[in-house]
């Protein structure tokens, strides 16, 4: 099932033409988006997602997104959803048509959670490390690279996932050339040691994770220690658990990295998933 809502609060046919062929989001990936999980009609972390959408817009020198319009479009999709209990909401805003008056194109699409994502949630996945060409301080030195913005320009991320598949894995952990961990193409990395959870800092030019933040809040309330600190790639192999956090896949464990089996984190994954769900 799919539902499409426009920012004026009306539903549109998701199979009918909507985006013009000269829209800059299509021609150049010049736009931004967020993917939001809704469960039983309730969107998770909608506020933080829309905050991040606004930050991405500012980084791309786009007009500030109409927050009320996106909230309305999300509600329209959820009020008309007749599919499963979970729905992935994709909020999209492009710069509009090339040579136009600057009016952006915006919409919210509701989609079923894929069987692949559900399987990875339950079973975990294998990942490979790939260099991203980012070093500490680059985001500040070169803001035009849009590091940390959630833009529609995902060609590099998708190429990395195809490379992972060629290597027999399902996911990627991006790294710096000096061996520090960054993030996944569509996820935030979390390493666990004892009752301490660590994720890399956004100052490295990575996207702050909404799901990771929700887990950390729940874990901290339960007495865990949470850290935002650099992580060396070598430390992943000896961690009690390595996890990728994202809106749709929630908390997904990495059981194999670069062809090496990681310590069994099945029980830890259950604990962290329970903590994450307790946030709601």
Automatic annotation (TrEMBL):
Presence of the UniProt keyword Lyase in the record: yes
The organism's place on the tree of life at top rank: Bacteria
Segments passing through the bilayer: none
Keywords: Lyase
Pfam families found in the cross-reference section: Aminotran_4 (PF01063)
GO BP field: carboxylic acid biosynthetic process
Family annotation (InterPro entries): Aminotrans_IV, Aminotransferase-like, BCAT-like_C, BCAT-like_N, Class-IV_PLP-Dep_Aminotrnsfr
Entry-linked SUPFAM superfamilies: D-aminoacid aminotransferase-like PLP-dependent enzymes (SSF56752)
GO MF annotation terms: lyase activity
GO CC list: cytosol
Family under the similarity heading: Belongs to the class-IV pyridoxal-phosphate-dependent aminotransferase family.
Matching PANTHER family: AMINO-ACID AMINOTRANSFERASE, AMINODEOXYCHORISMATE LYASE
Name listed for the protein in its UniProt record: 4-amino-4-deoxychorismate lyase
């Amino acid at each position: 099932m799919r539902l499409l809502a426009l920012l004026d609060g009306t539903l549109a046919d998701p199979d009918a033409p909507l985006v013009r062929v000269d829209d800059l989001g299509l021609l150049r990936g010049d736009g931004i988006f967020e993917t939001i999980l809704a469960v039983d009609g309730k969107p998770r972390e909608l506020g933080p997602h829309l905050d991040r959408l606004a930050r991405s817009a500012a980084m791309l020198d786009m007009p500030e997104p109409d927050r009320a319009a996106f909230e309305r479009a999300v509600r329209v999709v959820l009020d008309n959803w007749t599919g499963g209990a979970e729905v992935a909401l994709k909020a999209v805003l492009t710069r509009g048509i090339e040579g136009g008056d600057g009016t952006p194109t915006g919409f919210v699409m509701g989609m079923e959670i894929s069987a692949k994502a559900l399987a990875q949630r339950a079973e975990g996945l294998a990942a490979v490390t790939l260099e991203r060409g980012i070093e500490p301080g680059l985001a500040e030195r070169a803001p035009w690279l849009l590091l940390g913005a959630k833009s529609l320009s995902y060609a590099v991320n998708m190429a990395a996932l195809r490379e992972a598949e060629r290597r027999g894995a399902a996911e990627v952990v991006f790294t710096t050339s000096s061996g520090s961990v960054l993030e996944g193409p569509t996820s935030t990395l979390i390493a666990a040691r004892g009752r301490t959870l660590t994720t890399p800092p956004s100052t490295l030019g990575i996207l702050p994770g909404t799901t990771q933040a929700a887990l950390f809040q729940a874990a901290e309330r339960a007495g865990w220690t949470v850290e935002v600190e650099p992580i060396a790639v070598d430390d992943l192999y000896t961690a009690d658990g390595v996890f990728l956090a994202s809106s749709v896949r929630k908390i997904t464990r990495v059981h194999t990295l670069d062809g090496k089996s990681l310590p069994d984190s099945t029980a830890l994954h259950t604990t962290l998933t329970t903590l994450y769900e307790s946030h709601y």
